[in-house]
Design goal:
The complex is a heterodimer of chains A (183) and B (356). The longest helix of chain A is centred in the first third of the chain and has 14 residues. Chain A contains 7 helices and 7 strands, in the order βαβαββαββααααβ. Chain A has a 7-stranded mixed sheet with strand order 2-3-1-4-5-6-7, with helices on both faces. Chain A has one domain: 3-Layer(aba) Sandwich (Pyruvate-ferredoxin Oxidoreductase, domain 3), CATH 3.40.920. In chain A, 47% of the residues are buried. In chain A, β4, α3 and β5 form a beta-alpha-beta unit. Chain B is an alpha/beta fold and 356 residues long. Chain B folds into 2 domains: 182 residues, Thiamin diphosphate (ThDP)-binding fold, Pyr/PP domains (Rossmann fold), CATH 3.40.50.970; 111 residues, Rossmann fold. Chain B is built from 14 helices and 14 strands. In chain B, the strands form 3 sheets. Chain B has a 7-stranded mixed sheet with strand order 3-2-4-5-7-6-12, with helices on both faces. In chain B, strands 9-11-10-13-14 form a 5-stranded mixed sheet, with helices on both faces. Chain B has a two-stranded antiparallel sheet with strand order 1-8. In chain B, α1 crosses α2, α1 crosses α8 and α12 packs across α13. Chain B is globular and about 70 Å long. The chains are: A alpha/beta (183), B alpha/beta (356). β2 of chain A pairs antiparallel with β8 of chain B.
Chain lengths: 183, 356
């Protein structure tokens, strides 16, 4: 089993840390993992992305151009990566600020309005955990327990008091994600 | 030996491995994409863990000369930088090689020339393996292809540096430096307190002064010294060549690659095999010494070779020298921080070698 994921959005949305938590969770499950961030000038200009690979086998290239799953958090990233999802793959996107919705018919599309949800929970900082919860629901590769363990590993000790809020956000994400009906 | 499992960036793995290898001193100056090495070391405060000194110098030139000084005292010392900073260190490296001192230098390569780009490249191959600075000298060059090897090659690098009293370079790039993978770390090694007879640690009463220099104005003596260096490099060629091979036994076509490009080639081999093409990969772990003999052997069993590197074609020249025209050798690479895809590798193999 190999799952190749891209997460893309604005810098500051927690794209890289969401990927990091997924990678840590993979390690908890004894999987091989790689986490490859975009570190270029684009990070300073607004968009950020990270490629996460979870596999039962040795991972060859950490850089890939086609993904099993794309988690997309802004319009630029949707425009850039929609066509890079493998046929039969999965697209998860946040509808906030999206003017052109996904058009591919050969993939499964899920929408999660995580930004709105996090705002209404008055916890905009856990936005990325709402998204991750949605991912865990539709792609049950990583176990929730391991993700919570992964959170502990990737968060500095001084933020551990925020773990319950993050857990709550994960659960909320699992509840609100929904498949987009395609004609 | 119990090894600790961590999830780390390649750069962080180098820094942590240095502390654990019993490194005495790190001297550096920040530059993307390797700044995490210095940042990690500063944050870890290794002085409190092992007594290791970490110092941000005023420039790359100062840092390499601090390494020269520390190495002269017989200490396990290192520096790291990325391409433009490594260019600045070349004078110091030539002196260190000329003074036959051990040290570890890490180059997390970015695209050039000049300030170039901060994205990954492998365009410093020539500089790393052919000398880089002036004079007839060589660095022993290790090319990690995983975060695990970033850590492992720190300890190996120090070992080889002291074995040969020669600078060792870890030649990596922004991909391996920035990515996170699982890494198993060795337990803490004690810093060495061994007295090395060549080190300048103070003149004991009744013995000669120890002098470290790269200057010899008597040409006859200098030539003898040059020959001594050459003999040392030949010994490295006999004893230290390291490669990893993937499906070379029955390969019709061979990819030759190193570092992050070799990871991409591994995937290309899998894709090619799925199409029924018998493609193999030799991944170079030491760039100097270069695996001439093994490539010459493989030239007897394959129909062609393609060197894959993120440069305009540098390592490919050493591949050609190794196979002496026995089989066609071509190059494929991307430049400027563009990373080739496995699909591109296969396409180029098809058009440049298989169909050509």
């Amino acid at each position: 089993m190999t799952e190749e994921i891209i997460i893309a959005g604005f810098g500051g949305q927690g794209v890289l840390s969401m990927g990091k938590i997924m990678a840590y969770s993979g390690v908890m499950q004894d999987m091989e993992v790689s986490w490859m961030p975009s570190y270029g000038p684009e990070m300073r200009g607004g968009t950020a992305n990270v490629i996460v690979i979870l596999s039962e086998n040795r991972i060859s290239s950490p850089i890939i151009r086609e993904f099993d799953t794309a988690i997309i958090l802004n319009q630029q990233s949707l425009d850039k990566f929609e066509n890079d999802i493998k046929p039969g793959g999965t697209l998860i996107y946040d509808g906030n600020g999206i003017t052109r919705h996904p058009e591919r018919k050969d993939i499964t599309v899920y929408r999660i309005d995580a930004m709105d949800e996090a705002t209404s929970m008055e916890m905009s900082k856990v936005f990325n955990m709402v998204v991750l919860g949605g991912y865990l629901k539709v792609k049950p590769i990583l176990k929730l327990d391991n993700v919570v363990e992964g959170l502990k590993k990737s968060l500095p000790e001084r933020y551990h008091k925020l773990i319950p809020a993050n857990e709550k956000a994960l659960h909320r994400g699992m509840e609100i994600i929904s498949e987009v009906e395609q004609n | 030996m119990k090894r600790e499992l961590r999830l780390m960036k390649g750069n962080e793995a180098i820094a942590e491995a240095a502390i654990r290898a019993g490194c005495d001193g790190y001297f550096g100056y920040p530059i993307t994409p390797q700044s995490e090495i210095l940042e990690y070391l500063m944050e870890e405060k290794p002085h409190e863990r092992t007594g290791m000194v970490v110092l941000q110098a005023e420039s790359e030139v100062a840092a390499i000369n601090m390494v020269y000084g520390g190495a002269g005292c017989g200490k396990k010392v290192m520096t790291s930088s990325s391409s433009p900073g490594i260019s600045l260190k070349q004078e110091g490296l030539s002196y260190i090689a000329g003074a036959e001192l051990p040290c570890l230098v890490v180059n997390i390569v970015r695209g050039g020339p000049g300030l170039g780009t901060i994205q990954p490249a492998q365009s410093d191959y020539f500089q790393a393996v052919k000398g880089g600075g002036h004079g007839d000298y060589k660095l022993l060059v290790l090319a990690p292809a995983s975060v695990q090897e970033m850590a492992d090659f720190v300890e190996l690098g120090f070992e080889l540096a002291f074995k040969y009293r020669n600078p060792v370079m870890i030649l990596s790039d922004g991909i391996i430096g920035q990515m996170m993978e699982k890494v198993y770390l060795n337990p803490q090694k004690e810093r060495s307190s061994e007295n090395l007879e060549w080190a300048t640690t103070g003149k004991p009463a009744g013995s000669e002064r120890t002098i470290i220099t790269s200057l010899e104005l008597d040409s006859a003596k200098q030539e003898v010294f040059n020959q001594k260096l050459i003999d040392k490099y030949r010994e490295m060629e006999r004893s230290e060549v390291r490669v990893e091979e993937f499906q070379t036994e029955d390969a019709d076509y061979l990819l030759v690659s190193y570092g992050s490009s070799a990871r991409i080639c591994q995937r290309a081999v899998d894709l090619a095999r799925a199409e029924g093409l018998k493609v193999g990969l030799i991944r170079l772990i030491t760039l100097f010494p270069f695996p001439k003999k093994r490539l010459e052997e493989l030239a007897g069993s394959v129909k062609g070779m393609m060197a894959v590197e993120m440069s305009a074609g540098q390592m490919v020249e050493d591949v050609m020298l190794s196979v002496c025209g026995k089989v066609p050798v071509v190059h494929f690479g991307r430049m400027g921080g563009i990373i080739p895809t496995p699909e591109e590798v296969i396409e180029n193999l098809k058009t440049k070698i298989i169909g050509g």
